[in-house]
Amino acid sequence: MSKLDLTLMNVTQLLKSHDWLNSKIKKDDSNNPKNGLYVMVFKNQRDVAIHDRNAKKVNGIKVNLSGKVVVPPESYSIKFGKFEGHFHTRMRGYAEHMHYADLTDKAYPPIFCEVLHSALMLPLINCSPEYINPAAMFENFWNSSISHYLKEEQLLLEKQNIKSEYRLVKAFDEDHFDGLSKFANKVASDIFKVKETIFR
Asked: pLDDT (tens digit, 9 = 90+) per residue, 13-39?
């Protein structure tokens, strides 16, 4: 098995690039790993909510065509999880889904790059044998660790669905991002130790 490459990356500027999101990225690009974990913070400065394009279905009929609210007006949200099948593909999917306009407006503008506040990505390269999916293996640990950190730092807003893909957080500045980055690096180190124990 190849040497483990487990380096947490600040991908904020990368994801703020329309050119990167809209380009055809090679699968072997260093910024486009096949498998990994991420955490992103979004900032909505407008007085209207940001929606996810995916409309909810009830008895097979689409309702709430604007999709669910993922960042309320003048608020922050954080999203974390895994990606499989390359980072670029996953992020481009998110970029295509986030919007202000109702879905009846076919020309709703892309806003992902503008509302992204900050983002980290942990590529799980050479992290396990080929038959193992490391992102699926470590996603629960990653998510629960970040959830615990947000709670301990009192960054989460009260009265929200803690099972939601997007968590509402208080004002998130550079100091908060630095703190999150340091903690995420610690989690990456713990993942490395677990990997070394399992696949030594």
From this structure: 999 998 898 888 777 777 888 889 999
Q: State the CB neighbour count (10 A cutoff) for residue 8.
A: 20
Q: Where are the domains of the chain?
A: 14-23+43-134+161-171
Integer distance in angstroms from the first to the last C-alpha of the chain? 10
**C-alpha torsion 199→86→117→54, nearest 10:** -120
How much is the pTM? 0.85
Round to whole Å and give the CA distance between 56 and 22: 26
C-alpha distances in Å from residue 98, one per residue of 34, 60, 111, 149, 179: 23, 23, 6, 26, 27
The SS3 call for residue 137 is helix
Distance CA(40)–CA(82), nearest Å, equals 12
